[in-house]
Amino acid sequence: MGNLLTMGDLSAEEIKKILADANNFSKDEGWAPNQSAFIANLFFEPSTRTKSSFEMAERKLGLQVIPFEANTSSVLKGETLYDTVKTLQSIGLSAVVIRHEKDRYFDELSNINIPIINGGDGCGHHPTQCLLDLLTIHQEFGSFTDLNIAIIGDILHSRVARSNSEALMRLGANVCFSGPPEWFDRQIIANGSYLPIDEAIQTADVVMLLRIQHERHQEHLQLTKQQYHEQYGLTIAREKSMKPDSIIMHPAPVNRNVEIASALVECGRSRIFKQMENGVYVRMAVLKRALQTPMEREMEYVII
Ligand code: CP
Q1: For residue 303, pLDDT beyond 70
Q2: Which of 158, 162, 236, 243 has the smallest number of CB atoms closer than 10 Å to its CB?
Q3: Quaternary structure per UniProt (predicted)?
């Protein structure tokens, strides 16, 4: 089944196939499902980018999008996530996209027989964000091998840091981390290194900044926004120390003048809005993978 729950569901070859498909979708070289397919986006946490770009991807593929709003559904009457998804499977949906605040919410959905695409689980995983980040990096550098990627900020609470570091290391990149020591996650940084902020920024090909995930914090950091910006943010001065061809990325939403100076959000090095554009193409490719049969997928095997 074409589940995409974590980046661990994809081999390196499958990642490359999704990036190749996304590139084709960006050139309007399309694919359409063989038969009418119905899909719903179940977002139990706020989202601007992931939800709207999935909907855009679905509509571009000609899928029938069944509206679902958690706050007007029977979730409010105590329905479990399993019963909600089982209901949508029973009425004929072909696949579901789910974002949920619970880490690994999908473990309780193992008996569901339609593909599940994870749009983010708590502090756990965000595979489609990872894939759109990989596409953006690949467009820029043509390869991942020996690229220096600095992931900076709230590592502990970031599902993007988890998905990206795992995939980037697997694809041959060197990943380093920086930010407040209180927010390290030993599991995430196990195979990377820690660098002080200035060194991380000066040596990186990709400076990847993370938002402070206040909604997931048990204890709050004792720093003002200004202090955080000066100690751990990409300031105007730090941007000047970056290598000539290095780029800035951020999964967004951005907290301007906290993790990144507002003037840098749309500067020449920034790929932040390019990441969002790529999100539509990557999600088209992920939906294609979810809706194809295993045989159809095998017959299309291509390496970029
Ligand atoms: N990057 C990301 O997941 O953004 P949203 O929370 O707006 O979907």
Answers
A1: no
A2: 236
A3: Heterododecamer (2C3:3R2) of six catalytic PyrB chains organized as two trimers (C3), and six regulatory PyrI chains organized as three dimers (R2).
Ligand 1 binding pocket includes 99 (Cβ within 6 Å): no
Known binding residues for carbamoyl phosphate = 49-50, 99, 126, 129, 252-253
- Determine the pLDDT at residue 215: 86
Asked if residue 228 has pLDDT above 80, the reply is yes
Instruction: Please count the CA atoms within 13 angstroms of the CA of 100 that sit on its side-chain side.
Output: 22
| Ligand 1 contact, 49 CB (< 6 A) | yes
Q: Does residue 252 have its Cβ closer than 6 Å to ligand 1?
A: yes
What mean pLDDT is predicted for residues 201-213? 96
CB of 47 within 6 A of ligand 1: the answer is yes
pLDDT at 304 over 50: no
Q: Which atom of ligand 1 lies nearest, measured to the CA of 126?
A: 3
Report all structural domains of the chain as residue ranges with CATH numbers, in order of start: 7-126+276-299 (3.40.50.1370), 127-273 (3.40.50.1370)
Which amino acid would we find at residue 226?
Answer: Q
| Distance from chain centroid for Cα 146 | 22
Q: Provide ipTM, 2 decimals.
A: 0.99
Rounded to whole angstroms, what are the CA distances from 20 to 138, 205, 285, 293? 10, 22, 9, 18
What CA–CA distance (Å, rounded) separates 212 from 221?
10
**Using CA atoms, how far apart are residues 55 and 39, in angstroms rounded to an integer?**
9
